[in-house]
Write a structure and sequence with these properties.
The protein is 30% helix and 25% strand. It has 182 residues and is an alpha+beta fold. Helix 1 packs across helix 3.
């Protein structure tokens, strides 16, 4: 698939490029990004370039994973990343500390979920490592239903199983579960 740009009043999603490597590198120094994701640690500019070259472009070309840069309208600065993997119909995301609390991630998740549903996905899956209350708040606010705790689909940095909170948002809007969010 050719990359697509998605926009709301607060956020613009487009394809990350090598020009974004400094912003990606800076954001991936944040202890919360390191704690709650599997980005390499320590994270270098070479990691950012490899991410763009080996994951972003090939992901779009193969229809395996669609990755967007999160930007504010009118800005070229990358504030975060949101991605959608087609095999598991799941999404993942992170946001730089300076961009948190402005509703950018909520809008980004809404745009990606609506886009995925428009492409025919019957639902979208989300997970985060247990304890990541910020990510859970975004998923909850975006209409995901909490479905429980399980081993994460994406293993921990050490390759071992990691407990994750899981959630689902159905295309038709019906709740996937009646479990209360942690």
């Amino acid at each position: 698939m050719l990359p697509v740009t998605l926009e709301s009043a607060r956020v613009r999603l487009d394809v990350p490029t090598r020009a974004d490597a400094p912003a990606i590198t800076a954001a991936c120094q944040d202890p919360d990004v390191v704690r709650w994701t599997t980005v390499p640690s320590p994270y270098s500019s070479r990691d950012a370039t490899t991410f763009v070259d080996a994951l972003v472009g090939p992901g779009w070309a193969s229809d395996r994973e669609y990755t967007w840069a999160i930007r504010r309208p009118g800005s070229t600065w990358l504030e975060g990343i949101v991605g959608y993997r087609t095999a598991g119909r799941d999404l993942g995301f992170w946001l730089a500390p300076s961009a948190r609390g402005a509703g950018l991630m909520h809008d980004a998740v809404e745009l990606v979920v609506d886009w995925a549903v428009g492409q025919g996905a019957p639902d979208v899956y989300w997970e985060c490592y247990v304890g990541n209350t910020a990510s859970a708040a975004v998923a909850r606010r975006a209409g995901f239903s909490y479905t429980g705790t399980a081993d994460a689909r994406v293993p921990g940095r050490d390759g071992g199983p990691t407990p994750a909170w899981t959630a689902l948002r159905r295309a038709d809007g019906s709740p996937a579960s009646d479990l209360a969010w942690p």
